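Why do we care about 3D structure at all? Because function follows from shape, and shape follows, mostly, from sequence. That is the central idea of this module. The next example makes it concrete: a single protein chain, its amino acid sequence, and then its structure expressed as tokens.
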Amino acid sequence: MKYFDKIHILHVLSTNYGHIFDPDFRLTQNLSSHFEYLIEKYKLEDDEIYILYYILNVDYSLYSSKTADSFHLIVSFYNEHKLSRAIELLITLCFNLQNIFIKDVHIFYESSSTGDDINLITETLYLLQNELKLDIKMEYAYNRPSFRYAFKYCNQLTGNTILSNTDIVYDKSLNKIQKIQDDTMLCISRKNKQLDGRWDIITLQLDPDKPQDLRNIFSHDTWIFKSPMKYPIFIDIHLGEMFCDSYLNYKLFQNKYKCYNLAHDINCYHIQHDASHSDIITKNEELINDQMEKLVYRENGNPDFIYALEITNIEDFYNNINSNFFYKHRDFVETFIDKKVSGVHEDTSL
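And the structure:
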């Protein structure tokens, strides 16, 4: 069948994901029969067929030589029954499993309370873990993990650790991160695919009369640190909730971590064709206000818990200087929009 052809699969991957995969991949026939079963069961069509074939039959052994200081990757999955989104999450995992700087992947899987967990994601995960023997470790729960739960889990590990949103792909730029100090936290803003095919750091969604090219340094999809953690972080807010990343910035600063946003140097590619959950919420003022009120209540009436982290030079990280260039939300707006002044950092002493 033509969708076994590498040239066509290469075209599909290039069209959908640009340069963020290895074009020199090699295909096997290891899970071809399982592939036939899955496309029939889930009625996959068009690009979904080619991408699933690649996920199941790419030769992962080409990427098995991990480096001594490679990273543990911690992500969460959930019962995604929309097939196009399920394929996006699976190809994200597939690309990360091929990264020689990622030694293993730990998945928090949010199970259905009804026990109905048989879907394209769970069946594919089973094949990758049990048939191909890839280094995937599963943790099951009935709820989305909180930062408290995730960091507690990470404290069981030793070495370089990435806590990531589900749909983020990493490349060889991870090799730039060397000798993470135990009091350092990298909070990295993601890159989205632009209409012209480029990948660039996401921008703030502001009113039409405001600048439209401001980097969204309130948003982070990646946290990189050394496990076990030096300072405990007890936050019950869940990964992926509105404001969770900038709220975590606030807590990291309170807990004396040296934080850097290396978005210009470390590539974190966001794989999502449709509007994200946060994009949808951003357009709903009622939902935003509701989430804000919950966090104000959590902080005993303090409204200043939304912090942006400026993008900094990786040389500062190497030299362990100039960390914690944080902005409170109101000061960021004043500095970057009203005054349009750059390079001025607030004294964020609390």
